[in-house]
Amino acid sequence: EHFFHFIEIFSKVEGFGKVIQYLSVHAKNHIWKSCDNICSIFEKSEVLFRQTFLSKVTYLFDDTLEFLERHCKRLGIFLDEKTVSEYAVLCHEECSAAFKMILNLYIKRRKFDLIDVETMTVEVNEAFSAQEIDIFLEEISNVCAQYEQYHRLYFIKITEICKNSLFKLSKDNFSKRDSEEFEKIYRTYSWLESLYIQKSISIAIEMEEYGNYITSSIVDDALFISERSAKRALRTESFKCVHSVLVSLNSIFIQHIFT
Predict the structure, then answer these.
(1) How much is the average pLDDT of 45-65?
(2) Are 81 and 163 a contacting pair, CB within 8 Å?
């Protein structure tokens, strides 16, 4: 309460320009405090990392949205809508920057930065088991889903708060800017999903060849793998990821199922 009272007085004395500068620092400190909390788990054990990573990313987004909604509604009482909308943009940009750093740390933790996704060498293919790849894919797709959900809720909340300044909050512009940041993680996801499909189908074929099937056939397993991969790709809400997975599935089915 004292904070908003101070901002109201500060805006009358120094003007809206100075207010935005002060608020941007305040928002940055709040958001990056949550980010630092996430960054600390990258040094923890694998078990602890898997248990807490997604929940902490979810908290970052939920906390940012709650912080933004609470501040914008209160600030809107004595600040003009243009200033409030600029503040909303600053909060979003800080959250996106924090998340970008988290993604980079995740890529390094999983050693994806050492992989050239353009060349699927034998050595790299053998570096990960199908089970490990499945775990990585669940992490990536869930993180992407969390960010897309945050993205949608952000615009819903800000549309309610800033009705006349939305030209500054173009969703297309934000999506275009963010897509550049997510390009590497999406490429990595597509490469890993293709590798997962290949490895899983190969395992299913080997089991059938050696007569190790009890309750299912190669077709049953292929359909199960296809459904799992397709649902995961849809969760990312990336057209490129979905397209890549469908191409991989089509290739595998033509090569091993329809022949």
Answers:
(1) 93
(2) yes
Mean pLDDT for the stretch of residues 223-235: 92
Residues 159, 88 contacting (CB under 8 angstroms): no
User: The whole model's pTM is what?
Assistant: 0.82
Name the maximum alpha-carbon separation found in the chain. Answer: 82
Exposure pattern of 198-214 as b/e (b: 16+ CB <10 Å)?
bbbbeebeebeeeeeee
Burial class (CB in 10 A: 0-12, 13-18, 19+), 59: middle
Asked if residue 31 lies in contact with residue 64, where contact means CB atoms within 8 angstroms, the answer is yes
DSSP state of 120: -
Average of per-residue pLDDT across 48-61: 94
- Helix residue spans in the chain (DSSP H): 2-14, 16-39, 46-75, 81-109, 122-127, 130-161, 171-209, 218-236, 239-252
pLDDT band at 19 (very low <50, low <70, confident <90, very high): confident
At 67, the amino acid letter reads F
Q: Which residues contact 16 (CB under 8 A, 6 or more apart)?
A: 79, 80, 83
CB 144 within 8 A of CB 238: yes
* Contact yes or no for 24/90 (Cβ under 8 A): yes
CB 53 within 8 A of CB 139: yes
**Residue 228 exposed, middle or buried by CB count within 10 Å (0-12, 13-18, 19+):** middle
